[in-house]
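Board notes (copied after class):
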Amino acid sequence: MIGVILQEVGPWSWWILGMVLLGAEIVVPGVFLVWVGLAAIAVGALSLAVWGAGFWQWEVQLVVFAALSVVFVLAGRRFYAQADRHSDEPLLNQRGATLVGRIGTLGEPVVDGRGRLKVDDSFWPVRGEDMPAGSRVRISGVDGSVLLVEKA
């Protein structure tokens, strides 16, 4: 059945499959079908060049399509991994990390290593040595949503 469809539609069947996959990428979340669709279009372009050759049977075309799909997906993942590394705002969604180095006053005492610190308009749980309320502390680090503090 696959062989008959490929024979009748010719190399354009790969272009059609590629366009369908690229269109499906709009509906399906994620960036996966783009690479598979581009692999199908590449097989279509290759098919235009070697369509009459005796070795270019539908089985070979499927193997080439599968191999190109893997190569394109891996290349796409590598491309996006490099694009995500560099940012002009590396601490954008890490609010606690942006507070490291700031000095504040304890709103509640630190007892048994735990207390609360008011920073701007928010209260943050803190961990550090025991200190009375009103002590000046420096935020030295972050552990999840808990600020690590030391005497200022």
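Comment from the instructor: The chain has a mean pLDDT of 86. The longest helix spans residues 58-85.
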